[in-house]
Amino acid sequence: MQKIHVGLCGLGTVGTGVVNVLENHQEQIKHKLGCEIEIEKILVNDLDKPRDVVIDRAWLTTNPDELVDNKDIDVIIEVMGGIEDTNKLLERALNNKKHIVTANKDLMAVHGQKLLRLAKANKCDILYDASVAGGIPIIRSLSDGLASDHIEKIMGIVNGTTNYIMTKMTDEGLPFDQVLQEAQALGFAEADPTSDVEGLDAARKMTLLANLAFKMELHLEDVDVTGIRDITQEDINFAESLGYTIKLIGIASIHEGKAEVSVEPTLLPKDHPLALVKNEFNAVYVHGESVGETMFYGPGAGSLPTATAIVSDLMEVVKNIRLGSSGNTYVDPQFERLLKDDNEKFTRNFIRLEVNDKAGTFQEITNVFSNHAVSFAKILQLPGEEEGTAEIVMVTHKISRGQLLKSLAQLEELDVVRRLISHYRVDGEE
Amino acid sequence: MQKIHVGLCGLGTVGTGVVNVLENHQEQIKHKLGCEIEIEKILVNDLDKPRDVVIDRAWLTTNPDELVDNKDIDVIIEVMGGIEDTNKLLERALNNKKHIVTANKDLMAVHGQKLLRLAKANKCDILYDASVAGGIPIIRSLSDGLASDHIEKIMGIVNGTTNYIMTKMTDEGLPFDQVLQEAQALGFAEADPTSDVEGLDAARKMTLLANLAFKMELHLEDVDVTGIRDITQEDINFAESLGYTIKLIGIASIHEGKAEVSVEPTLLPKDHPLALVKNEFNAVYVHGESVGETMFYGPGAGSLPTATAIVSDLMEVVKNIRLGSSGNTYVDPQFERLLKDDNEKFTRNFIRLEVNDKAGTFQEITNVFSNHAVSFAKILQLPGEEEGTAEIVMVTHKISRGQLLKSLAQLEELDVVRRLISHYRVDGEE
Fold first, then answer.
1. B15 annotated to a ligand binding site
2. 3-state class percentages of chain B: helix first, strand second, coil last, to nearest 5
3. pLDDT tens digits, residue range B382-421?
4. Looking at the domain B3-132+303-323, which fold is it?
5. Which residues bind L-homoserine (chains A, B) (predicted)?
């Protein structure tokens, strides 16, 4: 029986998971592929670190050359993370005709298109389904299952840490800092949570999904990113009283060939499928012209779900090797990169203002909005926290981002407006 | 540019959808595949029927030979339905080395394994992702995306008609017959709704999913099927007061190499992801050993979602033709067909009894259950509709089907028991 030899870069929790999944599903893999998969070398930082898995010491090395220059290795599985050094390593591997499976969304969001093209030029595969929503085969579904559709919009909860935090803040009324600490203690948040909390991790994943869905080469810099750090319990409560739940949502949409990608706190109707996705779970909602709404739901991360996605990708790579059909998973972008400007981005908005509570205030404010043709679906006015102040909470009809920004700028210049407390996108309803 | 020629069998709503999707996505398909797809012939019953789509009259034929024996045709798309005659036609097509894409779950549930083997022997592909939950790439996800996992359980809402009926009965308190009529008027139910309402349609789809998930050749006859016709508003209300929603759920599970597949009305906790799937939508919940819970949600049928799934399958067939890798999508079953017997099927149950309301009744009943080691999580006793009667509503802990059936048989022999009103499976909780 033919053997395919794998070099594994990284032996953290995901790498250990890959070793376990390969071992536990050996028979299944052999049956399906008609060949064996064998780990040849594992790249680690420390040969002597105690491991959760029994590993042949001869497999371990601290020298990447023993993997990427190794004539016996057919496929590199990259689960060590990092961007620039890892990119150089994978470029070398591809030039040495090694196929690649990676879970590294940071790398793929920055260098993905170059790596994919290099792979194709070398007749190699590079698969990365594990990099977005580990337990959900979303990349495969976008590139194959929905291949014949025109995808108009993707909305995703693609970061488990922030969804966990938003769930606890919403359901238990706890403040951000306390929930973050809990999440760190439970292992749902990193010691340095910046990349999750600021929305960068989600932005990387949305870049990958938008590229595939819209067949366009979008860059990480094209994503408008706002994190969840400033969301308060009052925001959540006002949203709730108006029938909404606040989630960190990545949205990618396309209209007349122009794309828009953002990651930002978003108010969704409480019964929207994404509003019901709780805790560390991920979900990706896809709207296709023909298929209508579909949603994919599952664990976003975790050692075993991610390892399973990696081994499924590995099985596809091996199948292609066996059939002589490698190097055909990547398709060049079909469309030119075109982005909407602020006057082409339409959305509803939730806005909270603190104002002086005196006669004429409300009219001054509505004047500003009507100057910019902004109209409202819902308006609440309540006594402010401080004597002599009031709070105004509004949900606009669909307006352009240009209209929104100009209105807010002009409002902040009014004497009666003490401050703009917060404003968020509203989506998921007609 | 190379051209792939397609023969389309059937030009109903789905067939018309296929023609439209192929036409509207020509550029996208050419870009992705590097070749053109052209319809060569369309098999219809009536050449002169008015159509919703502009069709070259020369494409139409009433003679199947012009498709299956046509040397110019590479791929047959079968969307005409039917079982035995259609099977013979597809067998001929395969023996003539034509690849097949079909949306016909009735056919695939009965003859699928034989057709898949025949395709493989002829180095042809036969793809059928459109046959289950049209808008959801679930077959692809089970066979590729989750290929490296051990799938332990699938729970599916795979019939839109019955889910629509159950939703209306639950949310609007309407009786079965009225909702069925409404569904027929809206086109969500067939004029003859038997196959949907009795659960047979769902059973066919669950057979296909279970075969793939468990890598075992299960037959339609292996599925225990109960429909929704006998569910009453009282069942729904009692379920609701205990925290459950009733849905028609297909369940396939495997334990120690033995499988179990059923389609039956099932009580799910109100916040279970499947309980939240409303109206004609479908969803398939998959539990894998490594991946944990994932769920796929989308439209179950409809002309365009199904046509999209068909064209996505067609694109895979064409890709395989171009790469010379046809005939490798099917994998022989890995495991012997083994089924659980009644003593190996464990579940919780919801049971309603009408009893004589006199001293000692309750004890007689609980005696029967305790003789069979059946214990309860929840018990309600209420006055019956008739004077001197009472109703007992119970939810058992997990017991075997053997225990359940023996207890119920013995209960029905008791003088104090007037009748067993209903009993349903309870699932989706620990």
1. yes
2. 40, 30, 35
3. 998 889 999 999 999 999 999 999 999 999 999 999 999 9
4. Rossmann fold (3.40.50)
5. 190
